[in-house]
From TrEMBL:
UniProt name for this protein: SalK
Species lineage: Bacteria, Bacillati, Actinomycetota, Actinomycetes, Pseudonocardiales
């Protein structure tokens, strides 16, 4: 099983949480001051009224000053439970627009498989995965699939943070290494995560084996798929590939992203599932 190939299929489905017009409209309606306040409010909400320090720790690669511009002010705008409600409303609107019909047998089947995998994702040492798994499961299949993808995504992300910490790679350093390896614009990456030029330059030449970190991340992300089994995992891949491609093709907000994620290019390769 290729954990990265699986990630490429559930990450686009999860990303509608934050990076769609529907998501932005939902948090703007609450009174959030800018998209990033909405992002931090929605992503941190499963943890409760999390402090900027806790949120910075678990999100890892954001500069502390960027987080503190949004938190704790976001909790004065609305409660965590309200952020959870509006993020689900934004997800629902975005998926209906991007996918057209969401009441399909394929989505319902994918939701069942994804739930099995998500419930098998380890949560020890994975705070964001644990916090999201503790939330109620949506009833509608397309939203249950999103919830499962969110648990799987945050479980992988938590494991990635653990791998970075174990390798001694700091938050800004990880971004600098990743930008260099994937030919991403350093100015864009600094802006996207709130680091200064001085902070970036201070870590840009530090050594770090990012390939080893990625291998450790992939290994730590295999448990859900081992529990689902080879047949179930193959079926999940077959069901999620057209959904991921459709979302990625239509979601303009994710065309450029700090993860260098390009499902349209990476999934549209002949023979990817052989």
């Amino acid at each position: 099983m290729d954990a990265r190939q699986l990630w490429l299929r559930f990450e686009p489905y999860h990303d509608v949480t934050y990076f769609t017009p529907e998501s932005r409209a939902a948090t703007d309606a609450l009174g959030c001051k800018g998209g990033w306040m909405g992002y931090f409010g929605m992503r941190a909400a499963p943890l409760g009224a999390a402090s900027p320090e806790l949120s910075t720790a678990v999100f890892y690669n954001f500069a502390p000053r960027m987080v503190s511009r949004a938190l704790p002010d976001a909790w004065a705008v609305a409660s965590p439970s309200t952020y959870l409600r509006v993020r689900l409303e934004g997800v629902d609107g975005a998926l209906r627009r991007l996918l057209g019909s969401v009441d399909t047998a394929e989505i319902a089947e994918a939701a069942t498989l994804a739930r099995t995998a998500a419930l098998a994702a380890p949560i020890a040492g994975r705070p964001l995965a644990a916090a999201n798994r503790a939330l109620p499961w949506p009833i509608e299949p397309h939203l249950a699939l999103w919830h499962a993808c969110t648990i799987l995504r945050e479980a992988r992300g938590d494991g990635h943070v653990a791998a970075l910490v174990a390798a001694g790679v700091g938050p800004c350093q990880a971004l600098a290494l990743y930008a260099r390896e994937h030919s991403l614009d350093p100015a864009y990456m600094r802006t996207a995560r709130g680091w200064t030029v001085e902070e970036w330059e201070a870590v840009s030449d530090l050594p770090g084996d990012l390939a080893a970190v990625e291998r450790a991340t992939d290994m730590a992300a295999l448990a859900p798929w081992e529990a689902l089994g080879a047949v179930g995992t193959k079926r999940f891949i077959d069901l999620m590939t057209p959904l991921a491609l459709r979302i990625a093709s239509a979601n303009e907000a994710m065309r450029v992203n700090p993860m260098a994620l390009d499902p349209v290019r990476e999934l549209a390769v002949p023979g990817w599932n052989t």
